[in-house]
Structures are given as structure tokens and as C-alpha cells.
Amino acid sequence: MSNLEANRLELRSDLAELKRLAGWLKAQAQQELSADTSFAIQLCLEEAVANIIMHGGGAKDDRLRIAIELERNAGTLVASIEDSGREFDPTQFPPPSVAKSLEEAKVGDLGIHLMHSFASDMHYERRDGRNRLTLRFVEMH
Description:
By secondary structure, the chain is of the alpha+beta class.
């Protein structure tokens, strides 16, 4: 792969899809990103998607699709996650819905901490009935 511009992946609202996301991110990063940057992005995106599925109501709606897009510009990588679920900002702490179990709550909290630790900038917006989370990462060398 020679370019990360406009690379997109669509996921079902199913935690099993996190494995497919990890494989896709590894393939994207093989030639383009440092190992540290790739690791940070993978952790953040997996946790953000898990929060959307578990706390944003996604697991209850198998029609929900989650789209991830990567774009690279001059030393930064921007990851956009978009879904058509109910209004939900996966960067909020604690997640706004009640977790079904302690394990689910821990996953949600971990994801939020990782995003705040690794992403240099985060922005959430609700537009035209869709949630959009944008995470910006500065490449580490």
C-alpha cells in the first residue's frame, strides 16, 4: 500500500468485528506508519468502536453500520469514525449509558483514557442523524 488517503472500512455492530478492524489497521500501517503510531491508533480505534457498540446502543441494532476512514497529511493521521446510531459521544467519561456488567464499564473507561492519552486532538459532532468522531494523531518516530 502506498497511500492512506480515503481508506475506508465498514463494520457491523458486533464486537467480533474488532478482530477485522485490527487486521485492516495492521495492513494500512505496514508500510506507512511507525510501530508506535500504529499501536496508538489501533488501541484508540478499537476502544472507540467497542464503546459505540457497547454503550451507544449499537449492539442492539444489527442494521447499524460503523464506517472508519483514515487520511494522512504531513506527519499526522486523521481517523474518522461515523455511525448512524442514537446520539452518542464515545469520548465522554463515564460513558452516558449504564453498562450491563463491570467488565463492560471497564472497557468503556479504558477506551476513553486511551483516546485522551494518544490522540492529539478529538472532535465529536452529530450531523444529519449521524455521529462522527474525529481523532488526530501526530506520527511518532
